[in-house]
Amino acid sequence: DRRVVIVGAGMAGVQTAVALREQGWQGGVTLLGAEPHPPYDRPPLSKAVLLGKAEGSAFEVDFASLGIDLELGREVTGLRAGEHVVDTAAGPVPYDVLVIATGAHPVLLPGSEDVPGVHLLRTLDDALRLRPVLAGQVDVVAVGAGWIGAEFATAAREAGCRVTVVEAADRPLAGALPAEVAAYMAAWYADSGARLLTGARVAAVEPGAVVLADGTRLPAGAVVVGIGARPATAWLAGSGIELAPDRSVATDARLKTSLPDVYAVGDCASFPSARYGERLLVHHWDNALQGPRTVAGHIVHGAAEDALYDPVPYFWSEQFGRFVQYAGHHGDADELVWRGDPAGAAWTVCWLRGDVLVALLAVGRPRDLAQGRKLIERGAALDRAKAANASVPLKSA
Ligand code: FAD
């Protein structure tokens, strides 16, 4: 009986286990997760769970009836590929096929690690610790105006906290969006009553306050650090597995790693995208849903499976009362085409490379997103003038 061992019981690990059964895997499946909680979904943590509108976000998967051996509270500490085993404190676990799905860890703010009242927002425990803080309506400071910072600020405002968001760059989402686009999103903070300080560097975090490099002291009953996440791959040190410069597990287009019988998927792995001509590390939910299907297909069907993993990346964010969706992947040189008034409630921006749509950001326009995503998948050309007319559907030239 051949056994697939999956390390990491988040979205990607759970989906891999489920997809193996869906695709007919008859052998054993073991799912090892470091966290003590039944596997859960992360997006609600910065939304409904944080606000206490949902108790939790456990996946509705009946592991036992699917024949999946779920072992929680079991952290994997090493990989010995020659012997086909992974190590845990309770002893080694042998595998025939291994899937690495350990996700990502949030980046810590240097010097803030041991200060009381400093939080991260990655795990269910993080969200449950933050819930009473928000309910107490204290002054909160979020460090980082990325996706997590924006969603946290949204929830904290809704809970009635005074919110200041400190961002080192000159705009929110500087790593993801160009200045022309992000400028409109900066206004959302003020509209919601949150204060956004851009170009602001944290000099020190003290109990009860954040001190900026210019000497400003921000009172902080709680501090939430949202400055990015890095692949959780430290446990692979010494395994001989190939990592990319960003420390993600470097896979091929089948999501196979450099080691025999070892795959990697989700937030911990990067893959070569022929579509975009570069290696992609995607930290979004849809990638942790789609990648596992490719992995399961290769495990179940072996050489008969020829599907390569080359998705159009997709994600969404709910911030400041808006539904924000992005599909594709753009570069600095791509041309922007606006659909609708970005100062208004609903608008879309398209990125064109030559005449071809390569990415779009839709704010409150889910239909644009759905249509645009299909056009991107097809590599379709767009007529600029028609694309700029928000009252007609997006379609190819
Ligand atoms: P993870 O979800 O990180 O799961 C990995 C699991 O592996 C963890 O449970 C971890 O404990 C475990 N693990 C790690 N190391 C080991 C080890 N050595 N041994 C055993 N287990 C280990 N994406 C969107 O597209 N839209 C959103 O709105 C959105 N909202 C989000 C909100 C929050 C607060 C967060 C944190 C993320 C959000 N995301 C969102 C991103 C999305 O949740 C992630 O891309 C997705 O969870 C990745 O799944 P994963 O399984 O690869 O990694």
From TrEMBL:
Where's the Reductase C-terminal domain?
314-397
What organism does the UniProt record list as the source? Streptomyces stramineus
Q: Which domain of life is it from?
A: Bacteria
InterPro entries reported for this sequence: FAD-oxidoreductase/Apoptosis (IPR050446), FAD/NAD-bd_sf (IPR036188), FAD/NAD-binding_dom (IPR023753), FAD/NAD-linked_Rdtase_dimer_sf (IPR016156), Reductase_C (IPR028202)
Q: Which cofactor does it need?
A: FAD
- Gene3D superfamilies named in the record: 3.30.390.30, FAD/NAD(P)-binding domain
Q: Which Pfam families match?
A: Pyr_redox_2, Reductase_C
Q: Which UniProt keywords apply?
A: FAD, Flavoprotein, Oxidoreductase
The molecule here is called FAD-dependent oxidoreductase
Q: Which residues form the FAD/NAD(P)-binding domain?
A: 3-288
